[in-house]
Amino acid sequence: MKPPPTDRTNGRAAPAARRRRPTIVDVAAAAGVSKSLVSLALRGDDGVNAATRARILAVADELGYRSNVLARGLVQGRTMILGVLLTDLANPYHTEVVAGVEDTADANGFTVLLAHGRRDRRRLEQQLDALLQLNVDGVVVISSWLEPQALTDAARRAPVVVVGRPPRQPAGVDTVANDDAAGAAAAVDHLARLGHERIAHLAGTARPASRARSDGYRATMRRLGLTHHTAVVEIGDASRHRAQAAAELLSGGTPTAVFAVNDMAALAVLDQAHAMGIAVPERLSVTGYDNTVLAETVRPRLTSVDQPRTVMGRLAVDMLLERFSGRTADRREVLAPDLVIRDSTASAPRR
Amino acid sequence: MKPPPTDRTNGRAAPAARRRRPTIVDVAAAAGVSKSLVSLALRGDDGVNAATRARILAVADELGYRSNVLARGLVQGRTMILGVLLTDLANPYHTEVVAGVEDTADANGFTVLLAHGRRDRRRLEQQLDALLQLNVDGVVVISSWLEPQALTDAARRAPVVVVGRPPRQPAGVDTVANDDAAGAAAAVDHLARLGHERIAHLAGTARPASRARSDGYRATMRRLGLTHHTAVVEIGDASRHRAQAAAELLSGGTPTAVFAVNDMAALAVLDQAHAMGIAVPERLSVTGYDNTVLAETVRPRLTSVDQPRTVMGRLAVDMLLERFSGRTADRREVLAPDLVIRDSTASAPRR
DNA sequence: CTGTTAGCGCATTCAT
DNA sequence: ATGAATGCGCTAACAG
Description:
Chains A, B: GO terms for molecular function: DNA binding. 2 copies of one chain form a homodimer. By secondary structure, chain A is an alpha/beta fold.
């Protein structure tokens, strides 16, 4: 805890001559009217003399006056700010949801501010709290790391929508998720239609979304009568683990196709296949999940399950707006994902 | 502009039973003391009876009391919040700088909030304004898009540090940048040492950083006496442009090496080389710039110039702290980049 | 139609 | 150890 900022705007000339932004009183003084009148004029109230209003607007413009959100929030009880809390800035999945959030927020006159949890639950809670303290009107949580209790608590202070798949459904908060089971089914069905039978699965960590995808994989394999599904390997976050898991997967059972839990995992499979001299897609088909930029970047371009991220972000804000208008019942939305077929999948090799 | 939130905490039972967070008065009431005493106790003032303090702390803890940043900011003139303004959330370069900012902010008890410009100058200005309205104590701008005037104006309200290379040095704000010319020289020198002579360059848009790199490239080629530097192609942001530019570059002059302005451009070269059946690095060496995750993702792994992003972020906050302690002179810091050699560069092919 | 006045919210700091 | 005053900028209610 270092020495905090000392500068005060009042008092004698501060070092850097910090300038107060013009307030409504400055405008009032410059225009020679009361600040109430300025307020009315600025908000287009009818009861203001046209000439006076013109003068006020001119002065305000000249001074570069802009009303202060927080001050207005103080009296109106709303700030027109929406907070977005996300686990991991570096995760492109998250940032695309943010784009959707921004779209709808913009269209409705809201400003969006972001808080970053750095993949740390404690920090996520702190940041959520920080947003709430700013009196944001609502929060979109792009994370499945928070305890249901923390979310429910937060929702008592402002409407909260979770984008993703929290471990348990928290009371009082809305959720938007994609149908992981359906996505897994789409990928596996696609591979099966291409004639693959030995379809292996590279599974993720214990996160709910990963589990749902693995469950979907197993269910689909069962439905297809494919008992020979080679292996399910738990992988960690470290890329070394992924590589190791991928190596293990390709060595045992000699699969002709792999359904990876996400694009990063799929990339590990691609790399491992390359190292082992297995041609993709000729001898091995690979599918990812999330359709991140990665999928369009690696060679061969990755077939991947696409979550409608932008739509999810938009929907999240829509749900916030509904809460603002009085909805009290929780709403959970599950969106259908979409398989994007690229170059990493092809017909199964003949024996 | 949709109907804004209507809920007020006061009045009769609001639909969702929105709960006020406990304030210092609640704690005072529950502990049977005045709020002044609570304030003193919480901040460890000596003049508080030990037993009383213990009771107050216990009550505060039980109620889950946490002081409100904004209210404290009101009276103290500082909020202990730092704002980060960035051009593009999806740009991993930016997010790594953020990590550095967060490191140092954390260590000094500051909270970090992010505002996103969506690659739009107007929006960047709005977001900068939004941060300032929150009374953040300082702002780190990770962008070179803002007009110097906008930055200077902002700096009158709170200290501002720009990470990156603004077109002109704005008065009153500090800057942290990497030495693009030196980075370019490191890359070209590396290629020259490997025996390359026909070293082409894939240039970027008109952004200052890109220009500095191109200048560095040309200067180094001249210094090395390599007049035969094939071509400089202007590329746009669209990936199609990049591909086209890369194709053009590899067709004319048959270079044996390419210094690309950034990793994305290098990736385009890699892809194009692959399409044309040119083996990398056997027949063509490629270097990138920025050392993004991309560099460690593509095959072959990309040799790239690394900017010390985390350090830059940390330094930015250090500079903010200096301003808080009274520094008034502008400070501009230029950090040395570092060439990271991977698999995409090798000795020049024999004729 | 215009101007004045009193809070909105909360924590700190000064007098007592 | 306490009440009252204070910081901020705005809007709403009311008086002129």
